[in-house]
Amino acid sequence: MVSMALQNCPALVLNADFRPLSYYPLSLWSWQDAVKAVIADRVAVLSEYEHAIRSPSFSMLLPSVIALRDYIRPSRTPAFTRFNVFLRDKLECQYCGNGFPAPDLTFDHVTPRSQGGRTTWENVVTACSPCNLRKGGRTPKQANMPLRNRAVQPTTYLLQDHGRSFPPNFLHESWSDYLYWDTELER
Question: 20 to 30 A from 87, CA-CA: which of 25, 153, 163, 174?
Answer without folding.
Answer: 174
